[in-house]
Amino acid sequence: MRFKKALATAGFVAAAALLLSGCNSGTPGAPEGGGEGSGGDTGASEAWEVATDVQLEGSPTFDKMQKDGKVVIGVKEDQPGLGYLDNVTQERSGFDIDIARWIAASLGFDEDKIEYKAIASANREQAIMNGDVDYYVGTYSINDKRKEDIDFAGPYFITGQGLLVKAGGTDYQSLEELEGKTVCSATGSTPISNIKENFPKIKTQEFDIYSTCVENLISGQVDAVTTDQAILIGYAAQDPDNLMVTTGPLLTEEKYGVGLTKGDDALRAHINDLFTNGGDTWQAIFDKNLGTSGITVEQPKVDAY
Ligand code: GLU
Asked: What is the pTM of this model?
């Protein structure tokens, strides 16, 4: 197995997806506690309590939530394991969704007071700036360009850019090997920028959402899909006959943050405090949603800027 810990710093430890390509675990340095069971039926609803009588001085976003009697959360809904809407049951699930619910509960809002809005990667800053969502939780990498428009709490998860190809296809080890090929990603995402800026010989195709890229990969329109490994693992796990995550090293480091209105320092401090002092809740949410995915990540330290 050739999966390298390219990003072994910053507490990131990745394991190749055990489910996907028959890789053995073999990732050294798994975090302590990583051997704990997969979580099984650890109900995340039991992992946190809905707070009562919450006071949050100086947060315009929280004031608005209280006035409206609800919280509006921007999410993804086509990313299994992270942010997913089951079209049949209408249930939302995933690591990001439970992180979003945990934050809502800490602010006094139970599930029936949450309104979810699916916002594609390219539209996140604008949705936050417009006040269309109170906060955003959806594989949203913290970076300086985005910080010009919005703020981030966190990080609460670390992954990195990977590649998804057809099962049984080429196990690309780097982006250089894809020169002349067509790679698909989402508009406005960090992986599409990385390719366009640094690998001009790769042809790109873009869509609003990654699931469209995945459909195009299966139908042979594109040679690979690139985005965060954690997202790709979710697609491959859903369709292992057609899809596999390549085993090359991760291409970037992506630290996920909660997108917030710029300047709402009180809300940012509240969420950072929740992440820092939230006890076992982060781990329970991870185990429930990603415990059997083959991803092994420790909870990152909050970077309270
Ligand atoms: N984490 C990357 C980003 O924020 C890729 C995933 C996504 O588009 O949500 O751009």
From this structure: 0.86
